[in-house]
Amino acid sequence: MTQILERRVGLRIENARKTYGDRVALEGLSLEVEPGEVFGLLGPNGAGKTTTVHLAVGLLEPDSGSIAIGELGTPAEPPVRRLIGVAPQALSLYEELSAEENLSFFASIHGLGGAELKENVDWALEFVGLGDRRKDRVGTFSGGMKRRLNLAIAIVHRPSLLLLDEPTVGVDPQSRNAIFESIESLRDEGKTIVYTTHYMEEAQRLCERVGILDRGKLLALDTVDNLIRSHGGSSLLIVETEKGEMRRETDDPLEELKGLEKEHSLNRFRVETPTLESVFLKLTGRALRD
User: Fold this and answer.
1) Chain segment 239-258, per-residue pLDDT in tens
2) Smallest Cα–Cα separation from 191: which of 96, 286, 106, 83?
3) What does DSSP assign to residue 137?
4) Are strands 23-33 and 209-214 parallel, antiparallel or unpaired?
């Protein structure tokens, strides 16, 4: 078991389809996450992100297609599943127990015991900044502290592949930043991380590549810069003149500005460049989602 747990692994999903009754949650999803990569999976509510996580961790099986953890097999196999840590969007905590008791329980489920269990629990609590609250009942924790403990549970057995499903929902800025720093530290250790979110700034900070999912289909997959270049559209030049504000979409703001300068007296200007949010809205639309 020790040998397999020390391996760096990726995640491969091939043509996965999953339905719930008449509703199609995933329709032919294919993607590959490289070992040691932080991969962002973006999508509006109901896009299929959580279903993808459930398939990758072995909680669900695809109706068709395949899921593989590196070259080791499917997450349905217990030795392979031990490679995986998951922080679900719905908090998996026992509020009547202390932080330490929660971690000890989940570590034991992964087969840890004795000195190894204690060492890993101590490490995970310190890693997420909860060492001084280890004996406190989880029901007394703030939302941000619960999210950090949720992350600690995902990593207490030191997995090679981490699946983090909306790990910063409802947290304060300090806890969010602490979670970011924890993820960056895990990345530096060579962990493979799949990070689902609908916060564009999080994906831009943390992820090397991003896939945009909607209605169960993968709409685009690339680096953030390449997605913006391919799908972001033109820059917006906003100029204040003696006659008021003017807005021009342009691929060359400097040349556009020079042209306007010949015709108007310019007071000030600014340029709004495309962002990952621009890409997201262009591909998934602006309609509200429940």
Assistant:
1) 887 777 878 788 777 777 77
2) 83
3) B
4) unpaired
3 state DSSP class of 269: strand
Selected residue with higher pLDDT from 245 and 97: 97
pLDDT by residue (tens digit) across 11-66? 999 999 999 999 999 999 999 999 999 999 999 888 999 999 999 999 999 999 99
Determine the Cα–Cα distance for residues 164 and 60; give it in Å rounded to an integer. Answer: 16
Would you state the structure tokens that stand for residue 37, as one six-digit string? 């990569």
Are 60 and 54 within 8 A, CB to CB? Answer: yes
Place of tokens 């490490």: 123
- Distance, C-alpha 158 to centroid of its chain: 19
Residues 6+ apart with CB under 8 A from 124: 103, 152, 153, 155, 156
CA distance 207 to 167: 14
Examine the pLDDT at 182 and tell me if it is beyond 80: yes
260: helix, coil or strand?
A: helix
When comparing pLDDT for 244 and 284, which is higher?
Answer: 284
Report the sign of the C-alpha dihedral through residues 194, 196, 202, 207, in that order: positive
pLDDT-wise least confident of 18-32, 66-80, 143-157, 233-247 = 233-247
Contact 129, 110 (CB under 8 A): no
Alpha carbon distance 101, 98 (integer Å): 5
Tokens linked to 202: 């999080």
- Within 13 A of 87's CA, how many CA atoms are on the CB side? 27
| Torsion angle of the four alpha carbons 91, 97, 103, 105, in this order, in degrees rounded to the nearest 10 | -100
pTM: 0.86
140 CB burial (10 A radius; 0-12, 13-18, 19+): exposed
